[in-house]
Amino acid sequence: MNSDTDHDAPAAPPPRSATPAGMKIGDFAIDASSHEIHGPAGVVRLRPLIMNVLLRLAQTPGATVSREQLIADVWSRKIVNDEVLSRAIGELRTALGDDSKDPRYIETLPKVGYRLVARVEYEVAPVTQNVLPVAEKNSPAVVGNATPGRGAFRVAIGASALAGVCLIAVLAYRGMAAPKTAAEPDWAKQVNAATPFASDPAAELSPRFSADGKYVAYVMRHDDRSDLVIQEVSGGSRKVVNAGPGYATSPVFFPDGKRIAYWRQLGDDCEIIEHTLAGDAKKQLLDCKLNPASRFDLSPDGTRLVFASRENKEYPSALMLQDIATAKLTRLTQPQPGEGSDILPRFSPDGTRIAFFRGSESHQRVWLVDAAPPHAAKAATTVEGLSYGLAWAAPQGPLLVAADWHGFRALNHLDLTSGQSRLLGARGARFPDIAADGTLIFESATYRADLWLTDAREPGKQQQILWPSTRYSNQPEFSPDGKTVVFSSNRESSDGLFVGTLGGDAKRLPLPASFRYIRPHWSPDGRAILTVRIATAESKPSQQQAVRFDVASGQHEILSRAGNAVNAVHALANGDLLVGEIADYAMRLFTVPAGGGEKKRLALPLVSEYAVNGNTLVYTLPQLTGATRCELDTLRCTPLKIDLDDNNRFDWTLARDAIWYLGRTEQGQRALMRFDLSTGQTASHGFAPSGAGTSLATGPDGTQLIVVREAPPVIDLMLAAKVPSP
Predict the structure, then answer these.
(1) What is the per-residue pLDDT across 401-439, written as a single tens digit (0 to 9) for each?
(2) Which of 374, 347, 421 is nearest to 129 (CA)?
(3) 3-class DSSP assignment, residue 658
(4) Taking every pair of C-alpha atoms in the chain, what is the biggest distance, in angstroms?
(5) Is the pTM of this model over 0.85?
(6) How far apart are CA 207 and CA 205, in angstroms?
(7) CB 510, CB 554: distance < 8 Å
């Protein structure tokens, strides 16, 4: 018996605009959040599974979706036969009033698949009531409706937040210099006066104060285990809590100080545990059915639990609220496709609101959601970046946010009234917490990543570090002759682009320091490097411009014809530019002719990521698993059955005859994978990349491979007592 005959698949998240005005298919306005279609005859509510089918077809309007692909995308990891799919298509046609013999919406291609033939339109309404007003730099706060500018989206390019290398457009913000108010403590002075609280050889993680501020609970992570520790703030005495087998993390005190909750993983299973400190009694609060993320929070009164849940791996995680006494669950948020996941929630001190991050990779932004119905969610600021936790300083804010908003990971002050931010300090800070008396504690983390050169025929058997440093390097690419490598690194304090000669030194490119440079790529003749620049300090959303750097002369030029929303740029063999232009939460691809003329959009859908090698183009699609291979000169394309999706969107590279990527073995272990473009076969190797962002590069002859790998981090806890206000 087929289990999908009688049960719906998990509902798809709504499209970019959840209102009927946001997405239109033919004569129907789509409201994916309620599974409704609004048409000439009124409103029709679809089953969630049927809405999934419609949204999947709408992902690639006009393109044929095979029956096998449609089943794989909608009925993920389930066995479904053709009859089930045919019935679903029939039900969808009935709702749309369509005729299979004379289709206006869904065309059947016998023995092949289906095609959405109706026009698909997106009308993204400006966000008004749900976005807090943001003040312009050196101007009074805006009190009317505020809509984020183009900076509401930056495609992440995977620079290392871990090392403070901020290599994408994360500075699309307004007014980054908010003055502190007279009523606030001097947070900058307090942060910079922090002293070590725990600095064992093991890593100390996830510190949280008790309600009275007398104790700190944290994790002491060893190579083979993790201990939960309760330590006095003043006296320093410790108690190690017996968390049982498995890996435990993220301890949070209940308000009585006699119990803690923590997340625990044992094999493939996980749970959130309530642990009574006297007597070591344990009670499960939440199992692993909803895939709760390891970092969660308790309400100040200890009655509710908020956590990030990823019910379906194909879609972003959302926030869930659980009543601890009744186990009743309430969905708080539903991020829309392409917006990224909702993560790292924290209750306000009065329990009325929850602050969290929404986004993916390097374009995470602070949001707020009401803990009580109707659970209205709002963007708290236009500032985006790689984010590492936050803490409330008071019920109405401000927030202390660990993020790389100023080009390196540190603590930042975020005013919730104006949306303005300012840098406090504590470079390397992560996951802060604030006690009732204003004492601050946070992780101080130092990360390092190196470029490892290995033989692509036997990855990991022999390897060497290229141009080692104590900082973070990533985004490597070989020159066309295979003798040099361009890469990004923050080895000289701020991040920059470097060119290293194999067997020689690496030198920084002499580019203006007022910009960051991302996604470096060589020209086919090896004479130039193409990159994207973003200003490091602007009072409005930053432009992203294509830059050509001449290696021989050291001069650079702005490729203005590519526009001001460039996320990636390649030089093709014929001299044209292939540009990935920011389009909402994806990229549209177009070419800029070498001899002048208008840029031309390629007849391809919006892509999540893409790579070019000679005449071969490979791209991935947002929210979908797999890739597509195309010939650039003819745009003849073929789908590839490869495990590339939003989870490893930056961890792959295109070689002459293969795709190398970060994958997982059948046992769930991270592995370096090679997908052969000729045979479609995949081979697994043990030398897996572990760096953030673009972490793989192959030499032109296919024998050399660079893998970005992180060294074990050094993480200690720092305590900062409140500094009296002057």
Answers:
(1) 999 887 678 999 999 999 989 999 898 899 999 999 999
(2) 374
(3) strand
(4) 80
(5) no
(6) 6
(7) yes
